[in-house]
Design brief:
Helices cover 23% and strands 34% of the residues. The protein is α+β, with helices and mostly antiparallel strands and 166 residues long. The protein starts with a strand and ends with a strand. Strand 1 and strand 2 form a beta hairpin. The strands form 3 sheets. A 7-stranded mixed sheet has the order 3-4-5-7-8-10-9. Bound molecules: coenzyme A. The site of coenzyme A has 16 residues, from strand 7, helix 3 and helix 4.
Length: 166
């Protein structure tokens, strides 16, 4: 993807991140470092997962530095309570751009990559990022207490997909 912000043209490439100690070291720079990363670390150490196994993370490198990342997980159609017709969809979380690189198009490049996979997307945004998600074309759902349990999910509908009513 090519973007031009501040007069500079950059080619941004989004790649799937492999689980290895180097990737996990890079993850420490992100604010949302938590149980998911710790469990990957333990699994690697205990040889439960192999070095370089596929991860749910996608990221953008600037040189050899990981500067943006997100996690994407495909949810099976039988658990779909958001989209009509019911179908497999993507849960997107841990979208984060490290501070020095924010506002340069990296966050949108990751979201555009997720959209290019052609499935509907659901995310639970951090409070301060709502405006960003609106710009990316994400919409609020009609809150349902039983389904959403205190979350305020935002969703993106590909063409031909609409909200599920039940
Ligand atoms: N609030 C409002 N608008 C925002 C925004 C924010 N927090 N972050 C980005 N935008 C807007 C940009 O101005 C841009 O608009 P434009 O296309 O009209 O110029 C558009 O969203 C895309 O911006 P982009 O450069 O792709 O965003 P990014 O690479 O900085 O990624 C986040 C967006 C939210 C993922 C990233 O900034 C991030 O990880 N932030 C850290 C945590 C956070 O949410 N901070 C909020 C501010 S305190």
């Amino acid at each position: 993807m090519v973007t031009s912000k501040g007069g500079i043209s950059l080619t941004i490439s989004v790649e799937n991140l492999k689980v290895n100690f180097k990737t996990l070291e890079e993850f420490k720079k992100f604010k949302e470092y938590g149980i998911q990363e710790l469990s990957m670390h333990e699994d690697l150490e205990a040889n439960i997962i192999e070095d370089n196994s596929k991860s749910p993370f996608y990221g953008i490198y600037f040189g050899d530095k990981l500067i943006a990342r997100m996690s994407l997980y495909e949810i099976n159609e039988k658990y779909d309570r958001y989209f009509y017709p019911p179908q497999n969809y993507l849960e997107l979380w841990k979208l984060e751009v490290i501070p020095e690189y924010q506002g340069k198009g990296y966050g949108s490049a990751l979201v555009e990559f997720a959209k290019s996979l052609g499935l509907p997307i659901k995310t639970n945004p951090r409070v301060k990022s709502k405006e960003f998600w609106e710009k990316m074309g994400f919409l609020s759902v009609d809150y349902d207490m039983e389904r959403d349990r205190g979350e305020n999910p935002l969703v993106w509908y590909p063409e031909g997909v609409k909200a599920q009513e039940y």
